[in-house]
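Notebook entry, structure prediction.
Reason for the run: the old model in the group folder had no record of what sequence produced it. Starting over properly, with the input documented here first.
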Amino acid sequence: MRFTTSDGLQLAYEDEGAGPVLFCLPGLTRNARDFDDLAAAIRDVRLVRLTYRGRGESDRDPDFMNYNVPQEARDAIELLDHLGIERAVYLGTSRGGIIAMLTAAMAKERLAGVILNDIGPEIDAGGLDRIYDYIGRQPKARNFDEAAVVLRETMGAEFPDLALADWRVQATRWLEEAPEGGLRLNYDPKLRDAMLAQAKGEQPDLWPLFDAMAGLPLGVLRGANSDLLSRETVAEMQRRRPDMVYAEVPGRGHVPFLDEPESLAVINEVVRESV
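New structure, fully documented this time:
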């Protein structure tokens, strides 16, 4: 399914199930496939998934500088408006979590609760460097089998229990077959230009956005091997929000797949608190 944003782009989304609305926002370069594992494991919720502009089946923006968190937060609210949803539990993976925190500051009335998947108000420099290293670079793998091998070699230490077949599944979510043969990114490579340009400016303090979620049911997940969300940052989040539901997910880096028992327990608890 697709809807039209206020500036005329067609964005892809998925809407399935019945119950409290769990509004799923993916990672920086990802799409609705980020939540396939969750969709197969969770029950009794209405799962709405947005694919941001420039990713997956959504239109690419002619102005790559529109690939930014405030614009994507507006797009998310416009999807809720399109579906007639007043309030939802935001489940934000990585960048999606930053969008959720910003929404708490600019439109808190739309939030019934928030779950942050391996993201917080402080982002470790090592994780950012890794993102800048790979974002926007076309794969050298010629097919999904080769891509699976590359992913296992580069990310296997973070996700030690994944078999090669599991990495192939991830490859099909993050890449697509190119018309001329081989594989290509399934997002606009100009996302790299946007990130590099935005990195040159003064970086905002995200702690006020975290604090803006006061009073909302809040859950946080951290991959035990994450290089983006540190335990020290989690400790400060817990100090500010002692009611926060938290779990560290073993055998996962950035990011947990959300079908793990630890992840499902946090998600279900926040959904219950939000009703």
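Summary: The CA atoms of residues 16 and 268 lie 17 Å apart.
The old model has been moved to the deprecated folder.
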